[in-house]
Amino acid sequence: MPDTAPSFEEFQQRVKGTNICEQTLLATDYLNHINEPIMLLEMVADVPELLDELAEWQPKTYAEHFRDSSFTDKDLAIEAYEWSPDRYRLRFEQTINSANQCIATAIDALGKLIEQERSDDVRILCTEVSTLLGDLVDRAGSIIHGTVDRSAQTQIDQIMDDAG
To answer: 147 lies in a domain?
Structure first.
């Protein structure tokens, strides 16, 4: 075992040929964790009982997701995450936190709308939240692949502020 900690460049070499981006040291597999509530939201309007299943969903950190996954390189993904440059990792975390907040807010709002039997409003909210979450997943995917767009984050922050 070497006496020194690995460098960013060493991690870039270790992730070659995996589904972990060499530039950011992040993996898109994490986004499956956010895609799950999106799929449920898309069905809640037609099957309101699925809100119970959606409400059971809990946010997971990057490491928690990979520890629980069958991702081939999950240990490497967890280790590499700590070496991901701040300009990617911090924006990624901010985007995921926005998605988690959006999901929690939607679950609460949908519960009230379903209780009040406002099915048209349930459908509208499910559509709007699914679209917003899809945009957040796209943004997170772009970050994972090394694209950081400040204007997109500003727009997402504005939408979240308006929803809150």
So the answer is: yes
Average pLDDT on 115-119 reads 96
Percentage with pLDDT > 90 across the chain: 81
Report the distance separating Cα 26 and Cα 92, nearest Å: 9
- Please report whether residue 3 resides in a domain: no
Q: Give domain status of residue 22, yes or no.
A: yes
What is the chain's mean pLDDT, rounded?
A: 90
- Nearest CA to 130 out of 35, 28, 30 is that of 35
Task: Kindly report the number of other CB atoms within 10 A of residue 145's CB atom.
Answer: 13
Full residue range of the structural domain in which residue 72 is found: 8-163
Cα 30 from Cα 99, distance rounded (Å): 13
Tally of helices (H runs) and strands (E runs) in the chain: 8, 0
Number of folded domains in the chain?
Answer: 1
Query: For residues 126 and 109, what is the distance between their CA atoms, to the nearest angstrom?
Result: 10
- Whole-number Å distance between alpha carbons of 137 and 143: 10
For range 120-128, the mean pLDDT: 96
Rounded Cα distance between 130 and 71, Å, is 25
Q: Is the model's pLDDT at 153 over the cut of 70?
A: no
Bridge partners of 20, per DSSP, are 27
For residue 2, is it within any domain?
no
